[in-house]
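Anyone up for a design puzzle?
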């Protein structure tokens, strides 16, 4: 088999703060998120998708929330670590597709910058990275503005 599919999902609750990190992009906001790292829900979902594609466990197994090394960590560092794991096993990213779920902030104005940041970290063209967003029509925890969720899928191709 020379392709592998992966899926990831992550959630972070809003907390005090003046910005959120999403898809490697800093977005000014009236809340931050509660997290051990920088709380980049989109990159965490993508890390899990890449790890999942090779059945390598999940993000918490590789970057334990109890490990002070990851306190405040830039999630792009985690993503590059996952990329190195994938490459070291003879795989490369074919494409990835992300969906961020929140009422606010608006993701659309930042989607291209997110695609470029992710593509840069994964060594692919931005055309291989989809970034989309949706509200949840005011339903559920995202709809009530309690947090942000993100979904990611990816395809790995034998290098
Ligand atoms: N946080 C968000 C949520 C949505 N968008 C954009 O708005 C479009 C419509 O959202 P609905 O939830 O009403 O379907 C969506 O397709 C996105 O383009 C956004 O940028 N940021
Ligand atoms: C990223 C890690 C790093 O310790 O912590 P958090 O920022 O809390 O994020 P989460 O999505 O809960 O994933 C677990 C951890 O790997």
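Challenge accepted. My sequence:
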């Amino acid at each position: 088999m020379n392709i592998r599919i992966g899926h990831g999902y992550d959630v972070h609750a809003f907390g005090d703060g003046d910005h959120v990190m999403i898809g490697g992009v800093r977005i000014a906001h009236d809340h931050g998120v509660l997290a051990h790292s920088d709380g980049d829900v989109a990159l965490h979902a993508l890390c899990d998708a890449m790890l999942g594609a090779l059945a390598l466990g999940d993000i918490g197994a590789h970057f334990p929330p109890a490990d002070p090394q990851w306190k405040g960590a830039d999630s792009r560092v985690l993503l590059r670590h996952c990329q190195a794991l994938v490459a070291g096993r003879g795989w490369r990213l074919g494409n990835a597709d992300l969906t961020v779920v929140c009422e606010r902030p608006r993701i659309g104005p930042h989607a291209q910058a997110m695609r470029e940041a992710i593509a840069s970290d994964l060594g692919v063209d931005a055309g291989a990275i989809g970034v989309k967003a949706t509200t949840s029509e005011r339903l559920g925890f995202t709809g009530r503005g309690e947090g942000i969720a993100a979904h990611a899928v990816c395809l790995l191709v034998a290098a």
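A detail worth pointing out: The mean pLDDT is 98.
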